[in-house]
Amino acid sequence: MGLLDGKRIVVTGVLTDASLAFGVARLAQQEGAEVVLTGAGRGLSLTERTGRKLPHPATVLEFDVTVPEHVAAVRDAVGALWGRVDGVLHAIGFAPAACLGEDFLAAGWDDVSIALQVSAYSLKTLAEAFAPLMTSGGAIVGLDFDATVAWPAYNWMGVAKAAFESASRYLARELGPRGIRVNLVAAGPVKTMAAKSIPGFSRFEDVWADRAPLGWDVTDSSAVAKACVALLSDWFPLTTGEMVHVDGGYHAVGA
Ligand code: NAP
């Protein structure tokens, strides 16, 4: 008996097998879920290739959160395939290079607005696409990097994550009466494509393993996947608007 037996889960953000979303998709299938993957733009063919490494074949659909036409198109495609959706994983993040690095003041609005749209507003875009298919309630789970403090180099991506955290609470408020839960998993640093694009990512790596009471391995996202699958399951029926840290306990200690 799997934790997600009979569930139909849409997983965004599978790019490579290092993607946090890949670990979630794999574990979701192992726990009995049917999974659809979505990918965007030039990365779509990579999503298709990486999807073939899952235990079971998964349909891959195009969904770029910056393309308004994709919202109805992906909803219609998933609706035709399944009729309903039980869970959605948001694993989407992007910020132009000017938004990251040493100089917080260097980024202009053109760049910042892209970071905010792709990394924060997209949670609402995802809800718009799939909440109408959650006819028996459901769960939306997003991947966060704790934005309650300022980090080196993370800059406007950190600001976008703060907006993402806030958006998750507003969506929880709005969608709760329809039985839809919205929760975030605040993960510690993991070596993925997105992480590699952050200059100075190694500074996170160096401190994390030392400080986290439970230790931390930047090449292992299995604990993140377990938390996401648990939140997508029926085992958190009255939890919403919550941010669960899966960071080895780093957030709880000062030094
Ligand atoms: P990843 O493998 O590079 O995944 C990022 C995904 O975002 C890619 O699949 C990417 O697809 C997608 N994406 C970017 N722009 C998009 C758009 N316009 N529409 C739809 N999808 C788009 O990196 P990851 O680290 O697993 O990131 C997944 C999530 O986890 C992100 O929200 C990230 O902030 C969060 N997170 C990561 C860490 C970490 O240390 N890695 C820690 C905490 C939280 P394309 O490249 O094809 O556009």
User: How many angstroms does the end-to-end distance come to?
Assistant: 42 Å
Helix content: 40-55%
Which hetero compounds are present in the coordinates?
Answer: NADP nicotinamide-adenine-dinucleotide phosphate
Radius of gyration: 17 Å
What low-confidence regions span 5 or more consecutive residues with pLDDT below 50? Answer: none
CATH superfamily: NAD(P)-binding Rossmann-like Domain
> Main sheet?
7 strands, parallel
The structural domain count equals 1
**For the residues shown, what is the average pLDDT?**
96
**SS class:** alpha/beta
SS summary, helix count: 8
Strand content: 5-15%
* CATH fold annotation: Rossmann fold
CATH class: Alpha Beta
Features:
seven-stranded parallel beta sheet; alpha/beta; binds NADP nicotinamide-adenine-dinucleotide phosphate; 8 helices; 255 residues; Rossmann fold
